[in-house]
Amino acid sequence: MSRGGIDLSELTEQATLLERREVLLETARQALESGDRATLRLVLNSQHPADLAELLRLLSDDEREWVLPLVAEPLVSRALAESDPVTVQQVAAELDEEVLSDLVEEMAPDDAADVLGDLPEEQSERVLELMEGEEASEVRELMTHPEDSGGGIMTSRLVAVGQSHTVDQAVSNLREWADEEDILTLFVVDDERHLVGTVPLRRMLLASRDTLVGELADRDPICVRADVDQEEIAAYFSEYDLLVLPVVDEDGELVGQVTVDDIVEVIQEEAAEDLSKMAAIGAHEDEERSAFGVMRRRLPWLLFCLVGTLVSGGVLDLFSGVLAAVAPLILFVPAIMAMGGNSGIQTSTVTVRSLATGHAHTADLRRTVWRELRVAAGMGLLLGGAVYTVARAWIGDETVARCAGLAMLCAIVVSAVLGAVVPLAFRALRIDPAVASGPLITTLNDILSLLIYFGIAAGLMQLWG
Amino acid sequence: MSRGGIDLSELTEQATLLERREVLLETARQALESGDRATLRLVLNSQHPADLAELLRLLSDDEREWVLPLVAEPLVSRALAESDPVTVQQVAAELDEEVLSDLVEEMAPDDAADVLGDLPEEQSERVLELMEGEEASEVRELMTHPEDSGGGIMTSRLVAVGQSHTVDQAVSNLREWADEEDILTLFVVDDERHLVGTVPLRRMLLASRDTLVGELADRDPICVRADVDQEEIAAYFSEYDLLVLPVVDEDGELVGQVTVDDIVEVIQEEAAEDLSKMAAIGAHEDEERSAFGVMRRRLPWLLFCLVGTLVSGGVLDLFSGVLAAVAPLILFVPAIMAMGGNSGIQTSTVTVRSLATGHAHTADLRRTVWRELRVAAGMGLLLGGAVYTVARAWIGDETVARCAGLAMLCAIVVSAVLGAVVPLAFRALRIDPAVASGPLITTLNDILSLLIYFGIAAGLMQLWG
């Protein structure tokens, strides 16, 4: 396996990205300790910006202060563009604001806007004031868009030419932007800068130099408005296998492009967010380094859960008469609560996922939910039967066995219904359905399952009592 | 917003992908019902392959049988390449095998291998036998690689030239493959077909036609071996913002390339898998249409949970003496079980996530786990205190309040330790750590929390009793 910029001399061919970066970190630390500035300078400056960004993230504040002056400015600039918000803030804190503004100026405008967005507002304002006027206003413009919209993830750098330009003229235009990695497609516009079509670079390469770009263009390409949500944009990329997606304003004027590398990040971010919501942890917790900060983020849900579970305790209190009369009922409380909870989590996860994939046609949703309910009914019968059998063998009491079995069936089915209904209701109320797949549904199901169990027990006891 | 191939006449500019596809489905169904074959043919053949694939997925078997013969073969071929396994099987079942082999032959080899991989083995074998010899052996070769390895997601179609070729010669080479969308980069190889470098098309477009490609190439590019896992490959794409990644065999010979559009799919797939493991549902359940199939997939974990929860019941049985002596203890059982469970799920999710991002340097892991434990200690103190206070107010019994408060603190901390240790142990044993973040940890924590609670209660009662 070949390298990014990491020196592989100590590594086998199959070393993973992670292993290779561990070696880079080790090498850098050794050179730091021995004060070998020459080696350090050599190693650092031969890294891929993404590897350098990772190194900066892993180093301590002291180490970073040593390392930064040894790296060439363009490389620091590119590494900073690849860094997470915490690292950006740490690096920025160690740099002179003049230097910082030079670094930001070297970035593509979308990277510059992201990096400045990671800094405290006063600091980013000061940096912007130190930047050249034109660059600064381009970046300011990008910073006005919400971070998770088309405008927030697009770059305003692109090459757009009129339909009557030749390939040769378009190539000259491209040449002005030759160091820009964002250029994958040529955009064709009319006199009002309305998007007319796109030309893949491959097609320009193969065409003769005097062909008009208007003849080469794919007409009426897929494009989005700057206010479209990034999740929707990600759906376009994955459905249509796009490399770039043009972004237009309300008047259809071309204002930017989103490139696929930014979308890869968006998809990872959205997936991490869903996972976080299920576990009721903060979405960007890995960027949070203090335990106190993490606690503050998780506390609201935990308190909600605590109140919910105390209500569950209240249900047990409510039915203390039943419990006192038939003590072995308590033995199946964990089983009925947990299996109801599982059923609710499964149904809500399936529902949330089918809402999130962008595949959720009404027909799909109806089929998915209907399938889930049948699964729940089947599982309820099976597990209810199992619990009934175990209870008869264990306790030898027919009433307890019937209560436990029947309650298991009901708890599983009711939890499944709740697991399907809550996310759908949330979507209708424009709340993120993913919230429903976490502790909310579990807590509700706990209370409900206990009510069902003891309700049934009380009912049966009265019936036979 | 502009269209894929969907007719937008009924839609506003801001319609989402989903809304636009609902309209397509409606339009197709109306034309089907009125038997308007001319309109149907027109609508169908103007769709983007991905939209047609989605339509085929949503139609019933009968409708699909009507629709398929109206679509031009190349479009069906491309739609099939974009379809999910279930749709592939359904479409394949309705086609003559001669026709199917023609469709597969038109696909890029990696798409052909994927589609054939979705079919039952005998059927895919028959289709391969009907295909042209050279195409078939190229596809067969790709099908030998595991689906989730570099070899399984790469395409063998690429353009590789020697270092001493001119740009002009390379362009002629590219022209032979002009209809291939996979071509984003030119590969430069030596006489043994070892990878030497890559040339972005942009650079070729800007260079003069008699430049040698060896002079334009980025030397020593990042590449992977065919047996590398797709998750690792996805990490390369997202870390280094790649568009293509060359794949080599054990001898360093260039055998294929992975393109970014395939990686977008991989990332979505892996994210869905993690979410599924947390909820203990099957990873590819959305492709499963029978409730029975879904039940079979979920059953093992549910039975495991059932046994676990019955063991929890056994713990209650074990401490029935304590419970009988101090009945109000039962009221805090739900709270202590659930909060322990939450703590375990949070810690395990954070640990699993930091293992999965490819960012998990030893230093990071240590910091993350250490932070989690401090969070758990803080949360335990806070929630333990809250429960103590509630118990005093509610029950008015100092012993119960102390038991509940202390047990809450211990359950939260112990669950957090378990939540961190189990995924790490799983990784060491080469089991997917994500498994640990689901029902396994919850079930273990339930049992543990009850043992802690009643253990403390028994201890305190003996002490003060």
Molecular shape of chain A:
elongated
What low-confidence regions of chain A span 5 or more consecutive residues with pLDDT below 50?
A: none
Oligomer status = homodimer
N to C succession of SSEs of chain A:
HHHHHHHHHHHEHEEHHEEHEEHHHHHHH
Quickly give the CATH architecture of the largest domain in chain A.
Orthogonal Bundle
Which strand-content bin applies to the residues of chain A?
A: 5-15%
What does it look like?
Two copies of one chain form a homodimer. By secondary structure, chain A is of the alpha/beta class. Chain A folds into three domains: 17-147, MgtE N-terminal fold (Alpha Horseshoe); 160-260, CBS-domain (Roll); 285-464, SLC41 divalent cation transporters, integral membrane domain (Tetracycline Repressor, domain 2). Chain A is built from 22 helices and seven strands. Chain A has helices at 17-33, 37-45, 49-58, 61-67, 73-81, 85-94, 97-106, 109-118, 121-130, 133-143, 150-153, 167-175, 201-206, 213-216, 230-240, 260-279, 291-318, 320-325, 333-356, 362-394, 398-428, 439-464; strands spanning 160-162, 185-189, 195-200, 218-219, 224-225, 244-248, 254-259. Chain A has a four-stranded mixed beta sheet. In chain A, strands 5-6-7 form a three-stranded mixed beta sheet. In chain A, a hairpin with a 5-residue loop joins strand 6 and strand 7 (254-259). The longest helix of chain A has 33 residues, at 362-394. Chain A is elongated, with a radius of gyration of 30 Å. The termini of chain A are far apart. The mean pLDDT of chain A is 87. The interface between A and B is large, with 131 and 131 residues.
